[in-house]
Amino acid sequence: MEQKIKQEGIDIGGNIRRIRLEKGIGQTKLVGMLDLEGIGMTREALVKIERGIQHITGSQLRGIRDCLKTTYDELLK
Fold it and tell me: Which end of the chain is more exposed for a tag (fewer CB within 10 A), N or C?
């Protein structure tokens, strides 16, 4: 079972949403991009992650970083 990353004190979901919007990528498109990377995630799960009500896994975070062409520093600040 993969470790879930707690978002205490860090707005990972908000950072994902901000970067996604800055790049003009919709939630459905990001989920499709993740699927192509072999990371299964529903749009509903992405919504919950962005709202901070669902923990994100390490592989999901890595996939989002790659798809958004950003850094862990940007996602975790």
Answer: N
